[in-house]
Write a structure and sequence with these properties.
The chain has one domain. It is an alpha+beta fold and about 210 residues long. Helix 6 crosses helix 9. About 35% of the residues lie in helices and about 15% in strands. It has a 7-stranded mixed β-sheet. The two termini are about 30 Å apart. Strand 2, helix 2 and strand 3 form a beta-alpha-beta unit. The mean pLDDT is about 95.
Length: about 210
């Protein structure tokens, strides 16, 4: 049974992915990137992991070491150390404690999760934003760096602020292979039902 039919219908390929930070059951280290596991879960796989192999992702997901200043400078994406430091210091982070990250398609979830991640065309991402604003008229603030998109914007930021809309990042687009015409979007669990209900009320795009 699909408990979120309106949200799920917006994904053209695969299904939404549930992220749960589990404080009880310990996961195993994975040799995949976090964003790779999200992409695989979109297509039906499930994971329970204690760690993954992306340096930036590990920091964003709460690993106990410093921001990746040197890595960002060496990547060539920032003009100097000052810019690289500012960028890496601005990364959102998971602050809640956990023993494993459970990553699974919505159809395999038991109804309890922390963040829902979708890959959407811009028009369908627009509908999520409109549904979010349906009851209050409040604007949705897009906060992104073009880096750490799936782990940072769509997971840590969505958990902190309720929604994270991203244009992707070099790492996630290169390694997990979602389409150039898709944008990743994360929804914190407290906003999921509100958006699901809003989608049933707002007019279709071409009406």
């Amino acid at each position: 049974m699909n408990i979120l039919p309106n949200i799920s219908s917006l994904m053209e390929i695969g299904e939404p992915v549930c992220i749960t930070f589990d404080e009880h059951d310990a996961g195993e280290p994975s040799d995949l990137l976090y964003c790779e596991m999200i992409q695989k879960a979109r297509h039906g796989e499930s994971f329970s992991v204690s760690a993954q192999i992306c340096l930036v992702g590990a920091y964003v997901l709460g690993a106990p070491y410093g921001a990746p200043h040197d890595y960002y400078l060496k990547s060539g994406r920032y003009v100097d150390m000052q810019a690289a430091r500012r960028a890496s210091d601005s990364l959102p982070r998971i602050v809640k404690s956990y023993r494993s990250i459970n990553i699974e398609p919505l159809s395999e979830n038991n109804g309890t999760f922390d963040v829902l991640i979708l890959y959407l065309t811009p028009e369908r991402a627009m509908r999520i934003v409109q549904a979010h604003s349906y009851t209050s008229g409040a604007r949705v603030v897009i906060d992104t760096l073009g880096a750490a998109s799936v782990c940072g914007d769509c997971t840590a930021l969505a958990l902190e602020k309720g929604m994270g809309l991203s244009f992707g990042c070099k790492g996630s687009r290169k390694h997990s292979g979602y389409s150039d015409d898709e944008v990743p979007l994360g929804i914190g669990v407290e906003f999921v039902q509100k958006i699901e209900d809003g989608l049933s009320k707002i007019p279709n795009t071409l009406e």
